[in-house]
TrEMBL record:
Gene3D superfamilies assigned to the protein according to its UniProt record, in alphabetical order: 3.40.50.450
Protein's UniProt name: Uncharacterized protein conserved in bacteria
InterPro entries for this protein: YspA
Pfam families linked to this entry: YpsA
Length: 199
């Protein structure tokens, strides 16, 4: 297992929005996710894995960012945010959980912010351009990582399910290692990818 982690320097995250978690008010439940994530990230950081990419979206993405951020005092790690386009937060509430204020604070604290629509020269005037930018964002995160941590139930098959998290895990499957975390039990399931072979 050590040899596998020696070849990893970047991990990205994918997971659901608040509607599929605990909504916008249950801080205690979300703190539990952050605390559990910290333990997972701490385990990888001890192997020297330095870079952690999140997508900036409401829900799991932001929880993962704050988990990484809280460990920066313990480890020499980088907290990187890939935003799909400028202003993805414009329809969010100004304040409160996952609001615009927290989003701006997150971007200010990030070690690096990459605007995917700009770096990939996406035409944001097209119909459904924002949805497309989010999908490209997910693919770009995977392309620049060696492992994805996915917050996705073991009871469901991400190869068949709809939604952004399942789509991201499908894209990663066979390309990079997949660390799947079950949202209910927080058990971990690893799918290793080495030279195109999954084990």
């Amino acid at each position: 297992m050590n040899n596998i982690f020696e070849n990893i320097d970047t991990i990205c995250f994918t997971g659901p929005r608040p509607a599929k978690l605990y909504g916008y008010t249950k801080k205690e439940e979300y703190q539990k996710i952050v605390d559990q994530l910290k333990e997972v990230i701490r385990g990888f950081a001890k192997f020297g894995i330095k870079n952690y990419i999140t997508g900036g979206a409401q829900g799991f993405d932001q929880l993962a960012f704050w988990a990484v951020n809280s460990l920066k005092k313990e480890y020499d790690i980088q907290n990187i945010v890939y935003i799909p386009f400028q202003g993805q937060e414009r329809l969010w509430k100004k304040t409160g959980m996952f609001g615009q204020k927290d989003y701006q604070k997150m971007l200010a604290l990030a070690d690096q912010v990459i605007n995917v629509s700009e770096t990939q020269n996406l035409d944001m005037t097209k119909e459904k351009a924002e949805i497309d930018a989010m999908l490209v964002r997910n693919e770009m995160m995977v392309d620049n990582s060696q492992m994805v941590i996915g917050f996705f139930p073991f009871s469901k098959d991400y190869k068949k399910e709809k939604g952004g998290t399942a789509s991201c895990l499908r894209y990663a499957d066979g390309k990079i290692h997949v660390c799947q975390i079950d949202p209910k039990t927080f058990e971990i399931q690893m799918v290793y990818c080495k030279g195109g072979e999954i084990s």
